[in-house]
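Mods, move this if it's the wrong board.
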Amino acid sequence: MAPVVSRAIARRAIALLASVGAVWAISLYALADPATLFSLAIVPRDVNHLLGIVGMPFVHQSLAHLMANTGPLLALGAVMLFRGVGYYAAATAFIILLSGLAVWALGRAAAHIGASGVVFGLAAFLVVRGLYERRPGSAAVALFVFLIYGGMIWGVIPQDDGVSWEAHLFGLVGGVITARAFAAKRRAEAA
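Not the wrong board. Structure tokens:
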């Protein structure tokens, strides 16, 4: 039994480190090459920047910006991985797509970059999942995430500081929608 558990933990750790490592590798490359940085940004309603829908979380404006997103990506990703690599990968992909599409369609005219929308999405997912599932473990995780990351909610308020509040808002919305869809799927499978 122990080797099976060890392999599962190893797979989850590798998935988390690989996903955050990809963010780091691409961000560092893009910081050295501003053309790459801009090509992976979302520029709303610009068909030349459709790649930004999935590229935005992988590029950051600075090393400080990248480091600010790394801790929450690791912490929230680790919690998501308790349900498995496939669960984490699917939820994260849905959040990236939903938030990226919304920023591309509705965001203000600017280059939007960074993984903070994914951070908002993962946090919202974990909180809302606890509300939908109403299971003690999910509720405890929801409360914990809310207590630690609940103050982020102010990041969805428009400010004139160059931060993509739209990515924050649509990441949060993407997390809520994804949590609802996952909860509905879980209920359907149980029935």
